[in-house]
Amino acid sequence: MASLSMTHIRGGNYASGFGLNWVGKVQSVPRRVGFKVFASETQGTEPDLSVTVNGLHMPNPFVIGSGPPGTNYTVMKRAFDEGWGAVIAKTVSLDASKVINVTPRYARLRAGVNGSAKGEIIGWENIELISDRPLETMLKEFKQLKEEYPDRILIASIMEEYNKAAWEELIDRVEQTGVDALEINFSCPHGMPERKMGAAVGQDCDLLGEVCEWINAKATIPVWAKMTPNITDISQPARIALSSGCEGVSAINTIMSVMGINLNTLRPEPCVEGYSTPGGYSAKAVHPIALGKVMNIAKMMKSEFDSENYSLSAIGGVETGGDAAEFILLGANTVQVCTGVMMHGYGLVKQLCVDLKDFMKKHNFTSIEDFRGVSLEYFTTHTDLVRRQQEAIQKRKAIKKGLQSDKDWTGDGFVKETESMVSN
Fold first, then answer.
1. pLDDT per residue over 66-115, tens digit each?
2. Range with lowest mean pLDDT among 14-28, 79-93, 196-210, 371-385
3. What biological process terms from GO does the record include (predicted)?
4. CATH entry, 51-378, from 3.40.630.30, 3.20.20.70, 1.10.8.50, 2.40.110.10
5. Would you call 338 a catalytic residue per the annotation?
6. Which of 188, 212, 246, 338 is catalytic?
7. pTM of whole model > 0.70?
8. Can you say whether the dihedral through the CA atoms of 244, 67, 316, 104 is positive or negative?
9. Which helix (H) or strand (E) holds 418?
10. At residue 169, what are phi and psi to the nearest 5 degrees?
């Protein structure tokens, strides 16, 4: 089991008072970190689920993803009490009055014949916007949570329009509450892009790079950039975000989708006054897509960045510890859950921890780092797969195999059959 020891690297003044919890990357931009945390091997009977990411120490890698499960003080407190490793609050902006939600704003896809109401929920679409609560209210609740849970990790998700001054003001006000890190929402697929926010930034690498530079010049705590999957090559914006000073990236946000058409009314779902709009798709059905996107980012990070100082938070269809283990095997440091909490409740984290520990015991892993990224090396190109298989076939043909039984002798191949069982 891994225990923790600390070595001082660089000090500083931090809004959250969590200087002891931060680890930074080596690069030319100003650092936002204070201590490096190393793991040392000790004897133990239970696998250690704790992780330290960009200096943020969490009891387990399971993080509440930004959305309804982090929308106010009451639900975020519940998440901490249930044992989640960290909480990312619902995205905030300076002017919540511009955020107007509609109802219904969710639609679900079920497995089974014709989407039977009794079938398992495998897909979830939402057309919900970011927080519609006044920023000042959210800031007071962030501060209250940090006062009550000083040793737990609270991450603020933020989004603004294409305006440097607005980003700087938002960062300053949010940091004053004592939150431990920022997640930048560059990926909301609906509603906000109409105001040059969310995915409108994440899909434009030039715009993304410029805004990331504004953010990282202002922020004094770790910054994660949340990536949109609605792009051809997700590794490109991830590269830009990291190169522009972000300590980590999160992926994926929801996938642009239309849940379906009601065959009785002929209207799309979710239906608002007879109309709808494309929204974000999540839940179990997106898990394979998320694995592919996370794999692409992880391979890029491994080849181009110092993995010790940059982090990857994986998101997409996590409902079991096995789902989370797959992301960690690809290189994720943490795993976010949002829709899973909406379907199964905050107590889900307990089963996630049990599942993940069972997986670790099966393979004799004592810490998350023991298996993080282990499966990444087994991804290659199709051309390389063809080459590997051809070589394997040739090797198998070259191996001499003797007869297994007297009944296998044949008259025509008697000499060759004899030679196949000669040792020299």
1. 999 999 999 999 999 999 999 999 999 999 999 999 999 999 999 875 65
2. 14-28
3. beta-alanine biosynthetic process; thymine catabolic process; uracil catabolic process
4. 3.20.20.70
5. no
6. 188
7. yes
8. negative
9. helix 414-419
10. -65, -45
